[in-house]
Specification:
- This protein has 340 residues and is of the alpha+beta class.
- Helices cover 54% and strands 8% of the residues.
Length: 340
């Protein structure tokens, strides 16, 4: 019998929810460990405390703490056969990777912004999130935890670029994403067609918070994108879905709804990713660019520069015919600037 995969995380972590949904869909046995001192005793600690944290053997068989969702998905694709979330067609797999990164690195800005920029959202997060670390404690302790956590997170809004100027840009982008995804769901049950790709789980992770937890974006989602709200509940457990190879989107007939989503990615995610990489190369202390004609400012984020390097490497490794298809899909969307 295959040993179960051990991990820990929290319901308020979009990446935890992303990976739990992947494990369920792929029918991989797992153990979700409470975030308590007792449950995690003797387990390795990650270099940077991020959620979820997986405890997996390295090449010597020694347990290591692993935290990055995107490489983890690819590791599990190699180690476990069947019900894969990466399309076999190279061009479609690249598109899936691009949309997954958009979810992980741009939609998360909306998640963080809404949670810590509006009082109703702050109040709910401050009340609930501390309970997920243990609720059998006095009210005073929970309140103190909530106050400390919320103040720390609000103080970090600048890290994702959320401020008085960029807030409307983030919110307008989330609305356009909802409209684009709602239209796509009118025709296809998943981003990648009749079966989910890694991009579906990346988007789902962020929507567990935006569409189903935080009051302000949840109300917006319910108002303009009811399919998106319902879809988020469905993706949580797809263990009963029976996918077939023919369920992927036909790579020679990309839906117009995905082209609309690519155009949205090109309007927002692309200029920030490019400016971030340029700022890091120049050793600048601040990322400065414009998004939708408005100034954008945030701290440089080295990890996002790595994401751009990985995407460019994937693009460069595509077979010539697949790269030609990808470049045709991206032409005119703004996403082509990533690979110019």
């Amino acid at each position: 019998m295959t040993a179960s995969i051990a991990l820990t995380g929290a319901p308020g972590s979009p990446y935890t929810r992303k990976m739990l949904a992947v494990l369920r869909y792929r029918r991989l046995a797992y153990r979700f460990l409470p975030r308590t001192r007792e449950a995690l005793a003797g387990l390795p600690q990650p270099k940077v405390s991020l959620l979820p944290t997986f405890f997996l053997p390295d090449e010597r068989g020694e347990l290591q703490a692993v935290t990055d969702s995107t490489p983890l998905i690819r590791r599990f694709e190699t180690e476990h056969q069947g019900r894969e979330v990466l399309p076999r067609d190279p061009a479609l797999a690249f598109l899936d990777e691009l949309i997954e990164d958009y979810a992980d690195e741009w939609l998360t800005k909306a998640m963080f912004h809404y949670r810590w920029a509006y009082q109703d959202d702050i109040d709910k997060a401050a009340a609930i999130l501390p309970c997920w670390q243990g609720f059998s404690v006095p009210d005073e302790e929970l309140a103190a935890r909530g106050k400390m956590f919320s103040e720390r997170q609000m103080g970090r809004l600048y890290v994702v670029g959320s401020n008085a100027v960029t807030g409307p840009v983030i919110e307008a982008s989330y609305r356009r994403f909802l409209e684009a995804f709602e239209e796509h769901l009118r025709h296809h049950p998943f981003l990648m067609g009749g079966r989910p790709g890694a991009s579906d789980f990346g988007v789902y992770g962020q929507l567990t918070q935006l569409a189903a937890f935080d009051p302000t974006p949840m109300a917006l989602t319910l108002k303009i994108a009811p399919r998106v709200h319902a879809w988020t509940s469905v993706i949580e457990d797809l263990s009963g879905l029976e996918p077939a190879d023919s369920d992927w989107i036909a790579a020679d007939a990309l839906p117009s709804t995905l082209k609309t989503l690519l155009a949205e990615i090109g309007r927002t995610y692309v200029p920030v990713m490019l400016a971030n990489a340029q700022a890091l190369m120049a050793g600048a202390q601040t990322v400065e660019t414009t998004v939708e004609g408005l100034p954008w400012s945030q701290s440089p984020f080295p990890y996002q520069a790595k994401c751009l390097q990985w995407l460019r490497a994937s693009h460069g490794a595509l077979p010539a015919d697949s790269r030609a298809r990808v470049d045709g899909w991206l032409a005119g969307t703004g996403c082509d600037r990533l690979f110019a």
